[in-house]
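so the lab meeting is tmrw and i was supposed to have these ready like two days ago... anyway. pasting both below. for each one the top line is the aa sequence and the line under it is the structure tokens. i havent really looked at them closely yet so no promises
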Amino acid sequence: MSSIEQPLITLALSKGRIFEDTVPLLEAAGIQVPENPESSRKLILATSNPYLRLLVVRASDVPTYVQYGAADIGIAGKDILYEHSKEHPGGLYQPIDLDIAKCRLSVAVRKGFDYEGAVKKGARLRVATKYVNVAREHFARKGVYVDIIKLYGSMELAPLVGLADAIVDVVSTGGTLRANDLVEVEDVWPVSSRLIVNQASLKTKGQYLQPLIDAFAKASQGNSHE
């Protein structure tokens, strides 16, 4: 019997679609999650593997938990990871695009707003978004002058009440935009979720982390062909 006990591995992820799309990947690796974070108030969930636990955190906080070692690995969208890396460069290893929770970052405006005309005239646009760096770089590439207004939620309100001319936000089905009389006018990025790993954990727990990373890679391969 080995005198070295297997360390606990902590996986950080968010509720909603990322959690739902991660469960099948865990199951493919032989790991079950008995509790659903949507119905449980627990923020730390046990799994069928006694050496793996889940941290349920806000999507935007997942990279922070992983980078500072509170979690060994995590799953976060490309959009969140890009914004995080701009403010906190280094410290995260991104070995796999899991190709789950797929959506897109888009520019949207209220119906009737002449976006193309405003761009052609060189108008300075007010753009509301929580993806400040992505938006700034997107409009800079197009040569469009913008004032970025940072919001954390209910982005669709901004054009409706005159706070902004446009928004940059994640779109999945487009239902929320349509319900609020907004239309997409430009794609910015396709978005999917990625596995991220704390670099120190990879060194100290590598022999235990690598089989899990490999299992995620194998399980996610089918997603890229769907």
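ok protien two:
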Amino acid sequence: MEEVKLVINFLMTHKVVLSALLIVLVLMLRRVALSRIRGDVAFISEHQRKWMSRTKNGTFAIIVITLFILWQSEISEFALSLTAIAVAIVVASKEIILCFTGSIQRASARSFRIGDWIEVGKVCGEVIEHNMMATVIQEIDLHHGQYHFTGKTVTLPNSMFFTYPVKNLNFMKRYVYHSFSITVRDFVNLFLIVPEMIEQIEGHCEEFIDVARRYNSVIEKHAGVDLPGSEPHVHISTTPTGEQLVHVMLFCPTEMATHLEQRIREDFMQIYHETFTDNKLDTSMPAVPYM
């Protein structure tokens, strides 16, 4: 009993050690609870997501309340003595504080790490450095359907993480869902050429399709959602002005996406020409697709 009292007195005297022990204990309990909630299922249900979120928020609240109670006297003394100075510091260094807290938010949420592809606002790139004030990325041209580096280095202040959502695109470094559309001016039955188009696309994807299926399964298991799959998809729609759109989506290696798109466009032009122009379905004006 005497030893227990000594331990308690030691912990109450050294509050830093007690705080660290409490945080470790709560985090361990949270990890066990999250593991039990998730189980061994591949896809997380909405019910599981709710309970996982409640568990994370509840443990965070417990840590904050416990630390506040433990350090209440010190916080009160510190707040009273530095209130006026703190107000002046906050007003004068608002942006610096936002950058600092943005770094804490990034680290606590584990949004990304060095080497990941991220998108913040309209900027996409690979993270090459991050510190307490800023994050440095090598820009990648994703918004134009390209996946190459532009050669530009972008420095993002960490305060941006409170303004814009951070999208982690790390899985796109190896394989990507690449989508593009082909516009056809004349109204013909494009569904006639869809089977041949899919056959041609599958031929182009034959060399990597097995690896793509395995990688797609890895992404599904990690994300806990059902993705479109690794097979190529072709569907047809129309624009408000009456043109037809041939939409193509394929799961392919990132470095091959642009090259495959050009080959598929070439195949479409050839199949379209052989099916419709050579058969003289429209003798007055050759039906030529444009992209």
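from a quick look at the 2nd one: Residues 2-92 form one domain. The chain has a mean pLDDT of 83. will dig more after coffe
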